[in-house]
Design goal:
Elements lengths: L1 H11 L7 H12 L1 H15 L3 H28 L26 H14 L5 H20 L5 H27 L2
Length: about 180
């Protein structure tokens, strides 16, 4: 699995022939979508009617992000996976500490917001856009040399499981009323 992960990384990582525009886009997409996604998520919450649905969505998003980010941090604490540049693999275009790479925290954050929104009626359009931002950031963080493709798959799975767990807890709490 590791050799395949390295091969996929090298296929997606910026080559020496990458255009300045691609390098710039990779750098922007590696960092900026989080702010955009937060604003869009707030917009989805504010648009919910009645107010009780807005509060429930806000709570669901916050809990999903907390569970997924907490899980990702626990995974990183107990499983160190060296970043590509630590192994001298590929080309690194942005500065980064040599912390564990699995799963990507940036992408976990984005996907957790997207999944929380996706599981709520009335916010699916914004959810899909936030999901696209997550995929764009996933590509960019590989392109700039700080993550592997499997780091992104781990982020996707961590966020998805957290969103489903939070949704099930909400259903169970509602059923117990």
């Amino acid at each position: 699995m590791i050799p395949l992960n390295h091969q996929l990384f090298l296929a997606l990582n910026a080559s020496d022939a990458a255009s300045p525009l691609a390098v710039w886009a990779g750098g922007v997409l590696a960092e900026c979508p989080i702010g955009i996604a937060v604003v869009l998520t707030l917009l989805a919450v504010v648009r919910q009617k009645p107010r009780s649905f807005a509060i429930a969505l806000a709570l669901r998003v916050v809990l999903t992000v907390a569970v997924s980010m907490g899980s990702a941090c626990l995974i990183r604490m107990f499983h160190y996976n060296p970043r590509p540049f630590v192994l001298g693999l590929g080309r690194m275009l942005i500065a980064h500490e040599p912390t564990s790479s699995f799963p990507s925290l940036h992408v976990t954050f984005l996907f957790s917001m997207a999944f929380a929104l996706l599981l709520q009626t009335g916010s699916r359009g914004i959810a899909l856009f936030v999901m696209l931002l997550g995929f764009a950031t996933a590509w960019a963080r590989i392109f700039v040399g700080v993550h592997y493709p499997l780091d992104m798959a781990g982020a996707f799975l961590t966020a998805c499981l957290a969103a489903v767990a939070v949704k099930l807890c909400f259903h169970k709490a509602r059923a117990g009323q």
